[in-house]
Amino acid sequence: MNNLNQSPFGELKASIEAWSGELGFQAIGITNTQLGEHENHLENWLEKDFHGEMSYMAAHGKKRSRPDELVENTCRIISLRMNYLPEGTAAIEILDSKSTAYIARYTMGRDYHKVIRKRLVKLWSKIEDYLESNQLGKFKGRVFTDSAPVLEKAIAEKAGLGWIGKNTLLLSREAGSWFFLGEIYTDIPFEIDTEYADNHCGTCSACIDVCPTKAIVAPYQLDARKCISYLTIEHKGEIDISLREAMGNRIFGCDDCQLFCPWNKFAKFTEESDFTPRQDLDKSELLRLFSWNETQFLKNTEGSAIRRTGFEGWQRNIAIALGNAEYSDEVKSALKEKLTTASAMVATHIEWALERQNASLSKIRSK
């Protein structure tokens, strides 16, 4: 971090670092709005159609990579990170259990958008109070957390919080990658922090090798159309048959490229109670979750980011996981029961799952 005391806003910068810690953030950096290299990367990614159905990634013109066009007069961006991994979630063990649902660890508690946005608003309020009490003038700020056209990983890298790894996630030598990012766009002319220039992935290819659907098509290149996180959350239609088996028991998101990243041995567990798993979502049986009707789904995922997939997507994803599960009469019965009320799209996946269950039963009988 640079010594900012030479600036009239140097003391404010030091205060922001202290306040952010009190509000639950583990790191902070400040950068400018120049994202040229990252703008080129985004354009190349879009040209390859790697964004799939995420049309919002191509919307808004250049505003995603030019912050001062998104928020007029922005000259600085405050980037912050907050750890989210709950202790004791036994991720690897869950992945190895074909009867248990794997849900991405970032989404088992309260919706992070709500948690982080609330903290950022409080932080900006403290900044405004400081500016007023010290007669430093009127300035504007706008908070973001994965809620607008913002290149948050690029901004965080420029702000010195880490480097973008081969899995396209932001990595930190001190904290791995199990964290959320948030930003405050402002016209306060802070001195900026040093960009994180080093890349510590080296020759490691763990994330590429372990990706179940081979969505990391090259270092730093993710084809979202193959990514399980995209398929289970953003994709709203049928999932390609060629990808279903590789999805295993992952019903919402996928953490493999983090779970097997060597840098995550340095990850810190979260102390935020809001990120504690709800409804036993860290270790729920697939059949239990599949038994929910839409009313139960909405009730049990209230305040959770899981709602983004919708009830239909939820059923589709679990049907695939049950098709990948070991044969059991209970699974087969649950699939047949749901088939009578499922939408046409979900029914297609249930029928696939029943075929898989029948094939498993045939193998058992042939032994």
Summarize it.
The chain is an alpha+beta fold and 367 residues long.
Query: What Rg do the Cα atoms give?
Result: 22 Å
Average pLDDT confidence is 95
The number of distinct helices, counting runs of at least 4 residues, comes to: 15
Q: pLDDT under 50 segments (min length 5)?
A: 1-5
In whole angstroms, the N-to-C terminal distance is: 65 Å
Q: What is the H/E order?
A: HEHHEHEHEHEEEHEEHHEHHHHHH
The helical percent reads 25-40%
The proportion of strand residues reads 5-15%
> How many beta strands in the DSSP annotation?
10
Which strand order does the major sheet show? 1-2-7-4
Query: Which structural class best describes the helix and strand composition?
Result: alpha+beta
Instruction: Categorize the overall geometry.
Output: elongated
Largest sheet: 4 strands, antiparallel
Could you explain how this protein is built, in words?
The chain is α+β, with helices and mostly antiparallel strands. Among the domains are: 10-87 and 109-186, no CATH class; 286-367, no CATH class. The chain contains 15 helices and ten strands. It has helices at 10-22, 36-47, 67-70, 91-95, 112-133, 152-158, 206-210, 228-234, 241-247, 256-259, 286-290, 294-300, 310-323, 329-339, 344-366; strands at 27-31, 76-83, 102-103, 141-144, 163-164, 170-171, 179-186, 216-218, 221-222, 250-252. The strands form four sheets. It has a four-stranded antiparallel beta sheet, with helices on both faces. It has a two-stranded parallel ribbon with strand order 3-10. The chain has a two-stranded antiparallel sheet with strand order 5-6. A hairpin with a 2-residue loop joins strand 8 (216-218) and strand 9 (221-222). Helix 1 (10-22) runs antiparallel to helix 5. The longest helix has 23 residues, at 344-366. The model is unreliable at 1-5 (pLDDT under 50).
